[in-house]
Specification:
Elements (H helix, E strand, L loop, with lengths): L1 H42 L4 H25 L4 H22 L6
Helix pairs in contact: 1-2, 1-3, 2-3
């Protein structure tokens, strides 16, 4: 019994330490995607119109992250999954726009 209690304690402590790290992952992805957009503008891979559209979509994801955190202070699993899916879609749009052959 004592052994199971220590295992449960270790699992709970591990989760409480891991949750902020998982939430920080969304922030890291946002920073990375912002850098990709900026790099695309500098290199000429993105037109002005494409950059504005991607920036708007990027800000919408950022707003959603802030709103979800404002509700209860953190992102739960469902919120993280939804945001992750939106970040995946935005990442694909950035790649598609950067490699579509248009130039500014």
């Amino acid at each position: 019994m004592k052994r199971n209690g220590l295992g449960m304690l270790a699992a709970v402590l591990g989760l409480t330490v891991a949750l902020p790290a998982v939430a920080a992952e969304a922030d890291k992805r946002q920073v990375n995607q912002q850098q990709r957009i900026n790099q695309g503008v500098k290199s000429g891979e993105l037109t002005g119109r494409e950059a504005v559209r991607l920036e708007r979509q990027h800000r919408a994801v950022q707003r959603e992250i802030r709103q979800d955190r404002r509700d209860d202070g953190h992102l739960d699993a469902a919120e993280r999954a939804r945001i992750d899916a939106k970040q995946d879609a935005l990442s694909r749009r950035i790649a598609r726009q950067k490699h579509d052959g248009q130039s500014r």
